[in-house]
């Protein structure tokens, strides 16, 4: 009699956006800022960045988190972007009519964006994020307030 092996619980989910009409370099500029960050931090960063590429990436991150909560039943606080990549897609080519019967080509680049999220509660390798934060040290010395006009400095001289 054969026993079935226990299958490990899936630790990663992904969202894929294809044929997004923007240059891969412009999308890569935003992706580099969010790679390796937590889900909540990523949403805040994408809402505040002034680039046009932020909105489709925001939608993909949100979709990947929805996939994680539905497929793995994981909490959004435990999600981390483990892999984010941008690949060059097809180029849409059109001809624009110009003066004297000529035409100029218009090339609109597209890109494919992949967001992979990992649940850190399922992985033993990650430690709790709060323990990594630095504690703030209190100042040992308190300096008294000095008024620069009455201290006898250069301002008192006439």
TrEMBL record:
One of its GO terms (molecular function) is rRNA binding. One of its GO terms (cellular component) is plastid. This is Large ribosomal subunit protein uL22c. The globular domain of the protein is located near the polypeptide exit tunnel on the outside of the subunit, while an extended beta-hairpin is found that lines the wall of the exit tunnel in the center of the 70S ribosome. Belongs to the universal ribosomal protein uL22 family. InterPro entries: Ribosomal_uL22, Ribosomal_uL22_bac/chlpt-type, Ribosomal_uL22_bac/org-type, Ribosomal_uL22_CS, Ribosomal_uL22_sf. It is found in: Plastid. Keywords: Plastid, Ribonucleoprotein, Ribosomal protein, RNA-binding, rRNA-binding. It comes from Telosma cordata. Part of the 50S ribosomal subunit. Its main location: plastid.
């Amino acid at each position: 009699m054969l026993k079935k092996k226990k299958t490990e619980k899936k630790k990663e989910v992904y969202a894929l956006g294809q044929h997004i009409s923007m240059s891969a370099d412009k999308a890569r500029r935003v992706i580099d800022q969010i790679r390796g960050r937590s889900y909540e931090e990523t949403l805040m960063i994408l809402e505040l960045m002034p680039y046009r590429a932020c909105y489709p990436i925001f939608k993909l991150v949100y979709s990947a988190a929805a996939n994680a909560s539905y497929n793995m039943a994981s909490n959004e606080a435990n999600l981390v972007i483990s892999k984010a990549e941008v690949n060059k897609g097809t180029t849409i080519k059109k001809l624009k009519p110009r003066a004297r019967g000529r035409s100029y080509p218009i090339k609109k680049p597209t890109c494919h964006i992949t967001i992979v999220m990992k649940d850190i509660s399922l992985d033993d390798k990650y430690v709790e994020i709060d323990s990594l934060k630095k504690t703030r040290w209190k100042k040992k010395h308190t300096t008294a307030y000095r008024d620069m006009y009455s201290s006898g400095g250069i301002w008192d001289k006439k």
